[in-house]
Write the structure tokens for this entry.
Amino acid sequence: MNSMPGMRNQTVVDLRIDADWVVPVEPSGKVLEHHSLIVGEGRIQDILPSHEADSRYLFRERVRLPGHALIPGLINLHSHAAMTLLRGYADDLPLMTWLNKRIWPAEGRWMSTEFVMDGSRLASLEMLKGGVTCFNDMYFFQDATIEAAMEAKIRVASGIIVIDFPSAWAADPDGYLQKGMEVRDAYRHQPLVSFCLAPHAPYSCADKTLEKVQTFAAQLDLPIHMHIHETQDEIQQSLKSHKVRPLERLRQLGLLGPQFIGVHAVHLLDAEIALLAEQGCHVAHCPGSNLKLANGVAPKTALLDAGINVGVGTDGAASNNRLDIWEEMRLAALLAKGMSGRADAVPAHAALTMATLNGAKALGLDSQIGSLLPGKQADIVAVDLSGAATQPCYDPLSQLVYSAGREQVRHVWVAGEMVVKDGRCLSLDEAHLVRHARQWRERIAAG
């Protein structure tokens, strides 16, 4: 940015976006009317009343969005992007039957760089068009997911998966860690890529494996992203094999702390909620997947009341069928109200925060993304609230959570670059990806 002579000291910037509303998420519940968002060098430079922007800024591009709200890019705190190619392949089954009888055999047959690349491209397309600008992933062949995300121009927090079972990606826990570290070394300087350690679950990782994960997390200052307390069966297995519930086992092994993201956390005792709060842990709440697999409903009201940071995730499309954070955000709010009997349990501003800033906090990225503040990365979503389904609009924040959905997303920017325009993804060829998805369906269905 600079000022140009003779231009009344106006500052030259890359982009000005004018909207009826800007919902910055920070401060909580704030809605700015008739404001302009100023972007330069991939970051938010300013947010100010539109009538003031003319005298202060010259812009290379201006986007006028009457009837729209600007929000931060949504963050999918838990996903298995490549599993989008298994969408609808194993529906209406309980978790362990779903895994053991359908999903793991299919992955054993088909998992490869090609499978992960094509599935992750398809997932990235769906998420971007739905306003998701960052996803936290856990899967094999993580280099292929990173390449797909970079092609799509979406942020990815790439999980270095660790599991005791062999796969086409690695033979044992040491192999998973070694390959994961090699991928991290290769991509760690990419601006849209960050990393987590991703031990699959307590029931699929031995103590020795989890001790190594904890060591790597401490040495490299990486989050730990892990399924936990998803089913009652998981807890019973742990009591039988380890004599303690899974969270207590993780506590004893030193995994709990501000770096820990517990995925699902459906079945929790009061003492376990207190433990998560005491340790400063985060929770990735995946209500759609939990409901579809009949695993239950996480006690998010109790988690939030305890001060635990809760973000939302979709899980994979094989267990949810939609990579739709709008749906998860609305479900999170409605389930909290219904389960607690409190209509104000998760108000609209809290639900939107769960889908944005809370996810960024869990990933250690809240200084960069998750809210619309000067200095942060320009990850921005424009939502059209002018249509019949979102009228009349008394409160745009409420409309965003309870009435709008991904079909109202019109434009998306990541690091200041437009990647979705008028609902069309600019970085990926949708028709090409749909053709590939159909080809995969034919191959997988044929066995």
In short: The chain has 16 helices and 17 strands. The radius of gyration is 22 Å. Confidence is low (pLDDT under 50) at residues 1-7.
